[in-house]
Design goal:
With about 300 residues, this protein is α+β, with helices and mostly antiparallel strands. The protein is built from 2 helices and 17 strands. A hairpin with a 2-residue loop joins strand 12 and strand 13. The radius of gyration is 46 Å and the shape is rod-shaped.
């Protein structure tokens, strides 16, 4: 009885060994790529394709790893042919070879037929967003100003927009159609808005100049006017084509303020001079009135001369 068990065990081991040598290996496996944001990948996707295992590469190691990088949104399906050579099919098209068995020195094994993986539906965002300002360069006496505009992204979509004043980050919004109120320092302020899409691409708008003038005189803060367009570059910034208009308005406002100040100073000086002369004028007027009164008095009461016989 023990001999029978031993013989059965030996036959079982031989059978398993023959099966592993002749059986079709797990020819190919592909894991779902990591790094997606909201189902989108930035610029490219790399598939890790594992092909072959110990039974199919006896004496040649275990498995072979092949990195397959794509930059186009599509449906990808991987396959292995009867000789364990890997293929890829894009959007259900004819499978094309990734590499041949000879490249990895792995003897072909397995029965006739093709082994397929699942289908990977891949979305890849390769474009930067676009952004446009409806606000243009202006002058205001307020300590804050409203910057309006819109951003768009044809692939993963807009994640956020953020204003920058003199290079420092200011207010932000998650709305593609935005209206951002920014704080201003006295004098000239350079302002632009940065749009960021879901996967992280960025684009800066054109730069506008908002001048905060002195509170005495000057222009008041108000709405925005039609203006700039965007520069669609990944992360770059642009200069405003409307900054000249802001400088012209600022110079005109400063000239008006200077004229008003000069006129006010002249009026003040004349008023002060009149005030200083008023006592003397009143004294002179009083003297004239008194003299006239005395002359009249003596004229009326002067003694009459009588003639003598």
């Amino acid at each position: 009885m023990p001999k029978m068990k031993k013989l059965a065990f030996i036959f079982t081991e031989l059978f398993l060994a023959l099966f592993l040598v002749s059986a079709h290996a797990q020819a190919i496996s592909v894991a779902t790529p990591s790094g997606s944001v909201g189902g989108w990948y930035k610029d490219s996707v790399t598939f890790t394709v594992r092909h072959g295992n110990a039974p199919s590469c006896v004496g040649q190691g275990t498995s072979y790893t092949y990195l397959y990088t794509v930059t186009t949104s599509a449906s990808y399906q991987f396959a292995s042919d009867a000789k364990d050579n890997p293929y890829v099919s894009i959007n259900g098209g004819t499978p094309k070879s990734l590499y041949t068995d000879a490249n990895i020195k792995c003897p072909p094994r397995g029965p006739a037929g093709v082994y397929y993986t699942g289908v990977f539906h891949t979305k890849i965002d390769t474009l930067a967003p676009s952004i446009s300002l409806s606000s243009s360069s202006a002058t205001t006496s307020s300590s804050s100003y409203k910057i309006s505009g819109s951003a768009s992204d044809s692939q993963s979509g807009i994640k956020s927009v953020q204003a920058f004043v003199n290079g420092a980050a200011s207010t932000s919004s998650s709305s593609a159609n935005f209206s951002l109120t920014v704080a201003l320092k006295s004098g000239s302020n350079s302002v632009y808005v940065r749009a960021t899409d879901v996967v992280g691409h960025t684009t800066n708008s054109n730069t506008i100049t908002i001048t905060r003038a002195s509170s005495s005189g000057g222009s008041s803060s108000g709405g925005t006017t039609s203006g700039g367009s965007s520069n669609s570059s990944n992360g770059g910034s642009s200069n405003s084509s409307n900054s000249g208009n802001g400088s012209t308005n600022n110079n005109s406002s400063n000239s008006t303020n200077t004229a008003k100040t000069t006129q006010h100073q002249s009026s003040q000086k004349m008023s002060d001079k009149l005030k200083s002369l008023l006592p003397a004028m009143l004294l002179s007027l009083g003297t004239v009135v008194l003299a006239a009164g005395l002359i009249y008095f003596f004229k009326v009461n002067r003694p009459k001369k009588f003639a003598t016989n």
